Amino acid sequence: MRIIKVVLFLFIALSCTTKQEQVQSNTLSNASVGEKPKNVILMIGDGMGLSQVSSAFYYQKDSTNFWRFPVIGLIRTSSASHKITDSAAGATAFANGQKSYNSAIGVDTDTIPLTNISDILSTEGKDIGLVVTSSIVHATPAPFYAHAARRYQYENIASQLPGSHISFFAGGGLKFFNKRTDKLDYIDSLVAYNFEVDTTSMPDGGDYDINKKYGYLLAPDGMPKAKERGDYLTNATQAALDYLGRDPDGFFLMVEGSQIDWGGHENNADYLIGEELDFDKTIGVVLDYAQKHPETLVIVTADHETGGFTLAADHANKMDGDYNRIAPSFSTSGHSTTLIPVFAKGPGQDNFGGIYENNQLFHKILDVLRLEPQKKE
Ligand code: MG
Ligand code: ZN
What is the pLDDT of residue 29? Predict the structure, then answer.
């Protein structure tokens, strides 16, 4: 009789396990999160679905750096408001650990500000850096330091950068600091917060003073396309590593290949692939750094896919389709909701395999660092 009761109890307990609980237990079951990294580098290819990643394998002259990752996962990117996310909700999930509505910048579904990963990691003494090819106030970088009800409140977002926990940043967006509708000058504000601001060029050598902060605003809005901006992304990422690597407590760096998404929106395969290959080269810079500094965890992922991009054959729907000739094509000028790959290498890498929701990435990073999410006071 007793055995029957136990079996019955187990049956009921198992059948009550909902999908939600399974998602949670996925996170809670990471009893062994592996080694603890000192540095975490999160690289986001905006709009970089699996076909965008695949293009690096077919259009890269040298071997792509994606071969170098031992751990791969998949994330589901839907936001709290839409099956198909935008970049603001996607980055809010990564930076703040919660799904919010499309257009949200570091706020929850009631527009209440959330604590971001920069706030949490800076209490551990880690330096925080951002390197992007969009403007620094754009939807992907913004949730790492700012809170706004709508993503296009660029001047509001800019005004939150000087006093944030960011100590190194590079990207475009100068006009949101010095040509504002309110006539305020937030370059002065950055300087008042101990930033050295450069609006003309990246430095050649990384001769940085860790007691200062550094900001590069190198275009009025977004940076030029990969073909015109040259080695900006690799140089800025290397400069960030030179500066942040001096912090004995370690660092968190977010690097965004922002314009992979823009090529997708334009349905412009050359633009998209140029951005993907530039991002790939930058992954190489980051993995080379991690090889020399093995206490570094590298994670590469995307916020969503853009363009419904695919690498089918030329004339594939005709009898004379040539399976040796790829003709990239698009199914939308917007985003899609296909699952997005996550690549990880370094201490704690095994925590990033599997299939999970985009906001779990935040919790997985805190898990490997043995940290808890915090409530906003
Ligand atoms: Mg972006
Ligand atoms: Zn987009």
Answer: 40
User: Residues 203-243: pLDDT tens digits?
Assistant: 766 689 989 999 999 999 999 999 999 999 999 999 999 99
The pTM for the full model equals: 0.90
pLDDT at res. 275: 98
> Positive or negative CA dihedral for 348, 46, 61, 203?
negative
Q: Which residues surround ligand 2, an ion (CB under 5 A)?
A: 261, 306
What pLDDT is stored for residue 9 in this prediction? 46
Q: What is the DSSP string of 93-158?
A: HHHHSS---TT-BSB-TT-PBPPPHHHHHHTTT-EEEEEEEEETTSTTTGGGT--BSSTT-HHHHH
Look up residue 88 and give its DSSP letter.
Answer: H
Q: Based on the residue annotation, tell me whether 87 is a catalytic residue of this protein.
A: yes
Q: What is the mean pLDDT of the chain?
A: 91
Residue type at 166? Answer: I
- Rounded distance from Cα 117 to ligand 1 centre (Å): 17
**Catalytic one among 51, 79, 87, 258?**
87
Which residues are placed with Cβ below 5 angstroms of ligand 1, an ion? 46, 87, 140, 258
Instruction: Report the distance separating Cα 24 and Cα 75, nearest Å.
Output: 14
Ligand in nearest proximity to the CA of 302: 1
Q: Predicted confidence band at 332 (pLDDT cuts at 50, 70, 90)?
A: very high
Residue 83 CA to ligand 2 center (angstroms) comes to: 14
Closest to 146 measured CA to CA, from 113, 189, 180: 113
CA of 7 to the centre of ligand 2 (A): 51
Task: Compute the distance from residue 352 Cα to the ligand 1 centre, in Å.
Answer: 22
Fold of 40-165+258-308+329-368: Alkaline Phosphatase, subunit A (3.40.720)
94, pLDDT greater than 90:
yes
Cα atoms in the 13 Å half-sphere on the side-chain side of 228 = 9
Whole-number Å distance, alpha carbon 252 to ligand 1 midpoint, is 18
